[in-house]
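We modelled the chain as a single entity of 314 amino acids. Its sequence is:
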Amino acid sequence: MCIRDRYMGLLPVSFRKGKAKTQREPLGSLFGTIEVERLRANLRRLGSSPRALIFLVGVSGVSALLAALDTGRGANAKKEIIFRKEQLSKPLYELSQEESVHPPWTDGRINEWLFRRVRITGRPDHSQAMLVPRWVNGYFGYDYIVPLITRETEDGSKTWGLLLNKGWIPHEYEHPGSRYRIEDSSPQTFEGYVTRNEDLSRQSAFDGNSPTKGRNRWTHVDLHDMARFTGFQNQEAVAHGIIECADLQYPLNENDVKHYEFDVSMRQTYPYRKTSAGALQVPGAMPGDISSRVKGYLSLSIATGLLGLAAKIA
């Protein structure tokens, strides 16, 4: 049986009447007609299934809702970045000895001081360092948070101070014995900005902090747990925030890809501090990421909506 006889029912009337020699359609057009008929048949089959239509409408609606939610997150992220730029642009504030024990961001004033640049002098206690996991550029490591002693009795039995995030260290340096240097515990001056490290505050459903002297394991930042762990006399003040060391000599550009002060050679010494761009990052809500997700959600919403409409009409 030839192709013409097999698909005679689909061919034009002029072809069936013997005018094939003068009005014969190309073979590609013939099979294109067949595919169109198959598509119509599939759409009719889809349109006759209420469950399929409900599924398509549901996917379209949920995708549109996710796009709207992400658009809102993007707007909030832009406001947050503007706020951080304004705060980081303010003059460097040097904490006095008294303010290093009772910082000015207590008494409900934390929002006035978030991302303000400050300078503080104290003695880092590396024996009680708190290592909070963080991935940087696909490499696993820890944020290195230490109690910074700013006042103590002569015998060292009572101490006061604040929390200091010195930066990020690769996982190879988790244990002090694996480091190539002895940590400096002498009084030093540090510069950074006030934060609550909310990007590290998400608690895992299957793990948690073990803030005990013997274990000292951390999965996320919990300021109250960390304040108690320090043993400081001013724990209530400690729980209000962290001073995070940062290299803020770079322009305040959130689109700069260099978020930490190391390069591929890793020649700089650890801990690696955030740059100005790193301080401006809002994890999971940067405008560029939000825009890409919104486009994806809207494309899916439109595609499933049109498919459902075509199935209903067919």
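As a brief sanity check on the tokenised model: The longest helix spans residues 50-88. DSSP finds ten helices and eight strands in the chain.
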